[in-house]
Design brief:
By secondary structure, this protein is α+β, with helices and mostly antiparallel strands. The N and C termini lie far apart (35 Å). A six-stranded mixed sheet has the order 6-7-8-9-12-13. The chain is built from seven helices and 13 strands. Helices cover 25% and strands 29% of the residues. The longest helix has 12 residues.
Length: 210
Amino acid sequence: MLNRITLPVTAFAQNCSLVWCSATNKAALIDPGGETPRLLAEIDKRSLTLESILLTHGHLDHVGATGELLAVKSVPVIGPSVEDAFWINGLDQQAKMFGLSPVPAFTPTRWLTAGDQVQVGEEVMDVYFCPGHTPGHIVFVHPTQRLAFVGDVIFNGGVGRSDFPQGNHDHLIHSIKQTLLPLGDDITFVPGHGPESTFGHERQHNPYLR
């Protein structure tokens, strides 16, 4: 089983997910946006072994703690898709834009593409390419548990912004309607910000999808 806890971090209230395999206690952090000591404490208090860092896209509020974590834990950084390399390469510029201190740089160990899979212990998640919010945005889906980690593609009652460099609203809506919603109404998703929802609820009630 894939266990999980959602940890909103920083002033952006970005949902970092700590996920772990119940059989092995091996864990991954999905989108560690900040508050490195808190994230490490959550891992330690559950006696977990951090196995990887998984990234949905390259925005600072989703990757900001990655370099600091790598200074403590030598683990692979997996994702996003290579189209987001310019965001990760420009982390210092992103920090300046928000008036924040610089964050340590990093380079992903493995870029992801549609159809890839990632493993946390014995648990496997499928990778879906969902550009629009950023050009290299990906989504992680655990098909057995009907669970998705969608970053900033779709929210409870909303969708991601597309006014950042290389964002595209048409691509974003296409990603939601043609890639995510067909996976099934029963899938619960953890968005990058705010409360969870299901694809079915958003298909029926999200005003941006009508």
